[in-house]
Design a protein that fits this description.
By secondary structure, the chain is mainly beta. It contains 2 helices and 12 strands; from the N terminus they run αβββαβββββββββ. The longest helix has 15 residues.
Amino acid sequence: MNSALGDAAWLMGLERNSDLVMMESYAPLWSNVNGSQWTPDLIGFNNTSSYGSPSYYMQVMMSNNHGTTVVSDNVAGAAGLQTLVTRTGNTYYLTVVNTLGTTNTATIDIAGVTSIDSTGTLISLVGSSSSATNSITNPTNIVPVTTAITGLSSNFTQAFPGYSVTILKFTTNQAPEIINAPVASTSPITGTTA
């Protein structure tokens, strides 16, 4: 689970800089559990079975639930939380990584939006500890759980479980405030080696 939390934070950084980052890849993808050389691996297998790691499920969650535009947000009481809000059209995605071992309750304020549908979808990937994982014998120990959520507004409070990656999907009919990404320099980077 610890690797999934780190990988999620990394992917959030890539999304924030998607004007500069064209693609990313994960290695190693496959690992035979009878001769594994390192951890983590995305998918473990033996001669008869396979399983996805927590990082695998986090990649699936984030690849299926993100917007095309980064939106400004303000999360109060967010010690230990990393957040990212994106949107496509009227659909918003709040991605939150809680690296702490305890539930973290935070107030979410979506800047520039005054009207949000009160219902949404919450997708959570939660580990019982930072070292919890999936295996051949327990392939679904850590998998995403999707639930309906109510009580959403432009300013709301949400609890995020310890050791979790959470994506909150909701809609609105109002145009948001958009963060303008810096323009990349076309000049080559030069330097010296010491």
